[in-house]
Amino acid sequence: RSSWLLLAPLLTPPVPVITAPPCSLCPEGAHRFQWIRNLVPEFGISSSHVKVLSSPTEFYELLKVQIKAAKQRVVMASLYLGTGLLEQELVYCLEETLEKSLQAKGSPDLRVSILLDYTRGSRGRKNSRTMLIPLLQRFPEQVRVSLFHTPNLRGLLRLLIPERFNETIGLQHIKVYLFDDNVILSGANLSDLYFTNRQDRYVLLRDSPEIADFFTELVDAIGDVSLQLQQDDTVQMMEGMVHPYQGDKVAYCEIANRRVMEVINSARTRQELLHAKTFHSSQPGSSLLSQQGSQASGSLKPEPDTWIYPLIQMKPFGIQIDEMVTETLLTEAERDARIYLTTGYFNLTQAYMDLILGTRAEYRILLASPEVNGFFGAKGVAGAIPAAYVYIEHQFYSEVCCLQQQERVQLQEYSRAGWTFHAKGLWLYLAGSDLPCLTLIGSPNFGYRSVHRDLEAQVAIVTENKALQQQLHQEQEQLYLCSGVVSTSTFEQPNRYVKLWVKLVTPLIKNFF
């Protein structure tokens, strides 16, 4: 049975066609997830290059250390940059590193590229733009700040929707932070909460030039179709580029699709050639002399035991790779396999819900209790969003009970005094295994917005290495340790009361948050 056939309706022309059944094992006897490389580049690395972080503080300190050590490039993609003291310290680190580069002999080598969302980054009088303008003014040749504006916010809609609410139409939601050849993938934004008491996930890929090149090219591609921040706080498009909300929408989306798919396909071709070259050089008939020469020069890399697959989702541009891979993983998970899935905003797409309820694997779904939801205590309409999530959760739980699936599909709520919860991703444990062999980590929340509205990126990390599997297992355990199992009595608690107007409005607005 090929799950590829089940996903055929999702195919769009720019996505390369899979030519082999998804679960067919590679003749070299490698891992069972190699079908993903038919869609995206496969980066084979040593597990020793992967480090899983656990806390916001660790994430923040690592950002500062990496910025200060950077010599060639700093590339940061985030929803926004906050305006507090901790964020200002990051800007100071960038300034200090750029200054050092400027004072070095010859022309400065360091390049800084920052990609943020236009609407979120422009919110308020003091915002991401005002934080970064001093860098643009001081280092105009070395710094680039791109602000992505969704093509779906245009015309009368753009004029009528007020600030904050305009962010519901679509965002740049990718979170990737890279420094020379070191890459941090996360769901965390560049804001003080994410550096102190907002729990997320973070993974560092050290000394991974091919992966760093890929994400540099991806951020450059999105940056090229984004508004460029100028020194006087105005924005303009690159010369000859179609404008995202003033120009033709179809033409803009076609150009954006082409730019992003060029990055994916060229990297995929490069990695396939590299894989073929490595495979042939490792064969018994290959030149012993050339192998000895490689060993002598120290260029022979250790055999990879871990594989990284970048998964991109940009539905406004017709790119649905992350959705396709995620649905295939859920479809193919066998009986007695366990999937730990976590999201800070529990609002699964209907397709994901149907797969969870209709397939055979066991699911442990971690979500935010109302008190650790990022919108808890917010002013105005936003203050009702946690109640809307409770209502969505209750509906899903009722469906689980109706199908008598409570043993197989279990909901757990993260709760931690003084903290909020923003972690997302999944861990896949094969049947009979106590350790995960695959994790998804990055920006998507598995909800309607992630699939249909925003620009998203995450990586699938597949590993055969027990030590790295143990790291991933401990990460999962640490998050789930702060949770309680959801039962019928959960929704009988006073703080779970959902007002009638919230119940009536939620089905109408659930695709916007």
UniProtKB/TrEMBL annotation:
Domain PLD phosphodiesterase: 168-194
Keyword Cytoplasm: no
Key words, A-Z: ATP-binding, Lipid biosynthesis, Lipid metabolism, Mitochondrion, Nucleotide-binding, Phospholipid biosynthesis, Phospholipid metabolism, Repeat, Signal, Transferase
GO biological process, one term: cardiolipin biosynthetic process
Any one Gene Ontology molecular-function term assigned to this protein's record: ATP binding
Amino acid composition bias (Low complexity), ranges on this chain: 281-300
UniProt subcellular location: Mitochondrion
Protein name: CDP-diacylglycerol--glycerol-3-phosphate 3-phosphatidyltransferase
Species name: Chloropsis cyanopogon
Gene name per UniProt: Pgs1
